[in-house]
Amino acid sequence: MEDNGAAKRPEHERPPAPAGPYPWLVYCHGKGREDQTFWTISDPKRTALRRIPELDSKICWASSHGWCFFSDRARRHFFLWNPLTLEKIDLPDLQVYNIISSGYISSSPRETGCKILLFVGDHPSIMFLELGDKEWTEIDYSFLQTGKVVEYDHILRDPVYCNGKLYVFSYLTNSAIFVLDEINKGGVVLRSLNVEYQNIMSQLESLNFRRCFVEASGEIYGINILLGGYDSRVVDIEVRKIDFSRMAWEKVECVKDSVLFLDDHYSISCPEIRPEIQGNRLYFVLKDHKLYSYSIEDRSISLVSPYLPEDPFLSFWVMPDLRDYAGSRNREEIDACGEKQEIHQEAYFHRLPSDVITSLIIKRLNLVHYLNLRTTCSLFRSLAPPIQQKLCLQNHSSSPRLMFFEKDNICTFFEPKNSDKCYLHLPQQLAGCQICYSKDGWFMMSRGKNFFYCFNPLTGEILKFTDTTSVLELELICVGFSTSPTSSDCIAVTISKLNNLIEIYFAFRGDTKWVLEQIDDDTDFTFGGNSPVFYNGVFYYLGEKGNLAILEIIDDMVTWEVLWDLKSPRSHCHQNFLVECDGNLLSVFVGEFEGSVEVFRLSQSKMVWIRVENLGNYMVCVSRSSSFSSLAKAPGMENKIFFPRFYGENIVFYSLDTNKFHSFDRQKIPIEFYISREQLRCGWFEPRWY
Question: Which domain of life is it from (predicted)?
């Protein structure tokens, strides 16, 4: 063991002092990739720049028991490193190159019998090392498929230690679970639990996804991050845990006040101890090297910090050995205080006027907190009535609302001007459905690939547009319909592109099955994270690079054309949207990071995009699933673009008067785009009573 003397090193060659029982996020960057930037959630507005020799261009495969498991970029030389003491333990070189997927440290290297595992990513084997061994031992587990070649679905990775057992998961979509009961130089004992991670995402908008597994509070959680587009934007996130009593995965909306830190090679959990730390959250870095936070409770995603390095080589989480200290520190005090508070809490609130409780507490809660509040005491149950379809959906207001799910099967409708919320129980027939598209007061909703409905939340009417059970490969990538689904000439379309093949499914109202049309397309047109516009009898699609395409369907004749003569007004953007406004086609482009917004109008006579400086009395609502314009319904809503983003409890909009982002509670103070949070799986809704 090599002791590198943490106290003797200059500050820039050792990690910053721990700021609580939370991991550091380490970005490796700079010329020669020898610089590191450290960040932690306990002090999110600060970073620390270091140049630690051990971390120069290294890959981290695991971080546990206060130690990190590193290799060089060639994956030949491996070592263990303690970020607090700076102790380093060199391990034997790996003589044969292997694709490595993940690693595992069984215990602190200071303990006898510490075992180190490397899971090979391209064939069924585990590289095994007990600390002190002179070389790695390759353990074969091809016996998992007796007499057959082991498929990729049986390549194991993602070790998770939970309640005294080591669990590993198979490589591809089903992520079958195995218990690694024993491993040594003589072999491995693996036991299948016959539990598979069946994908219950409502629509596969992309074949690209990330799946991570992590232990938290004695439970095993699986996180599925669905990505879409050429820049891999987050489309949806699903959190599930293993119910060992039923041997099944179940969807969850809470991770017991824990914070989860995700990585491609390993993941870490920490308890929410400090009051300033928001629990029930995920932190992860995407391919754009930006750090994101996802709230499991309200299903929204936000950019955490814009001040991290813009072009790092890689990033990883480092967990110092402070969890035992954090878990015991003041725990008895916390439990004792909590018990006393429970005794006196209800008596205290009974002394407050009911209108104060309603205005200062109840009306400020989101749906999940509202439902939890009703379970605490009789006083709150009397002041917070059960969720019902509230009158705000029945008062014939035509103001647009954002619809999303704060809790499964309960829709939230949010009115942007007054920040008014109302709720609606989703009919049982639509249980588990997600939003695909919205138009003319109707939502197109799906549950998996084979259940496809149109729903009017005002009238409660549900239409099963056509039978989809025979179309097993129906991919709801980019969805739209031409007119109200009650209209006899309504046509619904889903379209996707894989490699150079475009697949179009369409059905007219009253059809008994979908029609499939396949078109070869070797262009670089790719569908963006937006919805189509039915305009002048054809569907228009705005591609991710700002190019425009037309889909025309007459009877069973399908025509697809990319308008290459029409140049994109923006070479690159974070998001773009297409919308019809006052008889014109508008494109809306949101900048990559600074959140700048530009609007253009299509001149069909000249086939050019013309910049728009003012929307007049119109307001525009944009989201991935629905974008439309309407005349402003209330003073102050005109000349604005409303996004499915929140700052605090208020919708964020872009004003073409100020060219800044604002919310109605702070119209005079601009909002920085990166600090707003995006609501996932939502859609704008324009009330229609027909």
Answer: Eukaryota
Q: Which of 106, 239, 250 is nearest to 165 (CA)?
A: 106
Is the Cβ–Cβ distance between 160 and 149 less than 8 Å? no
Residues 6+ apart with CB under 8 A from 597: 588, 589, 590, 591, 641, 654, 659
Q: Percent of the chain beyond pLDDT 90?
A: 46
Between 257 and 552, the higher pLDDT residue:
552
Mean pLDDT over the full length of the chain: 83
For residues 260 and 595, give the distance between their C-alpha atoms in angstroms, rounded to a whole number: 27
CA 562 to chain centre: 31
CB 487: neighbour CB atoms within 10 A? 12
In whole angstroms, give the CA distance from residue 171 to residue 155.
Answer: 5
How do residues 141-154 score in pLDDT, each as one tens digit? 887 654 443 455 57
Helix residue spans in 161-239 (DSSP H): none
Residue 386 and residue 376 in contact, taking contact as beta carbons nearer than 8 Å: no
pLDDT tens, 85-104? 999 999 999 987 778 999 99
Cα 149 to Cα 481: distance, rounded to the nearest angstrom: 46
Rounded Cα distance, 373 and 367, in Å: 10
Sheet containing strand 557-562, edge to edge, reads: 533-535, 538-542, 548-554, 557-562
Dihedral angle over CA of 425, 427, 431, 436, nearest 10: -90
CATH number of the domain at 426-565, please? 2.40.128
Kindly list the domain boundaries of the chain, sorted by start residue.
Answer: 399-419+567-689, 426-565
- Tell me: pLDDT of 473 over 70: no
CA 293, CA 225: separation in Å to the nearest integer?
12
pLDDT tens for each residue of 621-676: 999 999 999 999 889 999 999 999 999 899 999 999 999 999 998 888 899 888 89
Q: Which two tokens stand for residue 532?
A: 């189509």
Q: Among residues 428, 385, 435, 430, which one has the least CA distance to residue 413?
A: 435
